[in-house]
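Retro notes (design track)

What went well: tokenization of the new backbones is finally stable.
What didn't: we kept losing track of which sequence belonged to which structure.
Fix going forward: every design gets posted as structure first, then sequence, in one message. First example under the new rule, 250 residues:
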């Protein structure tokens, strides 16, 4: 749980009318200039608004952690990154708070087989925050001579890899968490039939059928418009998350 002191030290302010559309503001109400320039670079590199938002909130957690240690981003050291990772490994994720009668974390839903999420931060979330912090300081190194990157990296020995030689596994970078491989899950046919029969609108049936047949993300489907439907060829267009490439499917 984030302490009240940490919550008051920095906040994210959304400003849809400006570029970038977010400011990381300190307790005096002043926006951090370095973060603003970093976010501006992300926008200029054609990063999606959702990506910019995840980056600024990842930096918010890092700035709050440093504040509790009496430091600013200029004073961060490798030991701070190590302790931040240890903190995330043991802390509760505030977005995972559940009712007292909720299922036990890790238990399986008897109908869907989906595991109930644990209250803490997933390894993928910790690794993402490390990537954001590393990118932030990599950007700062180009502007300031006295700000080293506190995120340690394993030396890259295969920068000039011969494509005819096999790749040699060098292991994870320091503090990177091991991410478990997830087993793909499929919805049973009888459960799909039950869900399909329970729908009373053709629009909802079309949404469910497209989700199952294309395996698209909910965000990709919800972002569709009438312009993404080719009535002549009887196919639809999905804008892929991340790359934003077009994918047509029948």
């Amino acid at each position: 749980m984030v302490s009240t002191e940490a919550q008051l030290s920095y906040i994210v302010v959304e400003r849809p009318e400006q570029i970038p559309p977010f400011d990381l503001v300190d307790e005096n109400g002043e926006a951090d200039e370095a973060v603003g320039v970093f976010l501006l670079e992300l926008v200029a590199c054609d990063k999606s608004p959702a990506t910019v938002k995840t980056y600024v909130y990842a930096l918010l957690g890092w700035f709050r952690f440093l504040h509790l240690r009496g430091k600013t981003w200029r004073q961060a050291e490798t030991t701070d990154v190590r302790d931040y990772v240890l903190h995330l490994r043991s802390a509760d994720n505030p977005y995972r708070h559940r009712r007292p009668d909720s299922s036990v974390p890790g238990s399986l839903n008897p109908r869907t087989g989906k595991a109930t999420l644990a209250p803490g931060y997933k390894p993928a979330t910790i690794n993402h925050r490390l990537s954001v912090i590393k990118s932030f300081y990599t950007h700062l190194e180009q502007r300031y001579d006295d700000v080293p990157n506190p995120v340690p990296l394993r030396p890259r020995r295969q920068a000039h890899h011969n494509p005819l030689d096999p790749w040699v596994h060098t292991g994870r970078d320091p503090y990177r968490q091991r991410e478990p491989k997830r087993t793909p899950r499929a919805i049973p046919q009888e459960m799909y039939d039950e869900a399909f029969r329970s729908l009373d609108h053709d629009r909802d049936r079309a949404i469910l059928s497209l989700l199952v047949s294309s395996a698209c993300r909910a965000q990709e489907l919800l972002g569709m418009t009438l312009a993404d439907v080719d009535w002549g060829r009887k196919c639809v267009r999905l804008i892929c998350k991340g790359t934003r490439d077009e994918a047509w499917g029948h």
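Added context from the reviewer: The beta strands are 10-14, 22-26, 229-230, 235-239, 246-249.
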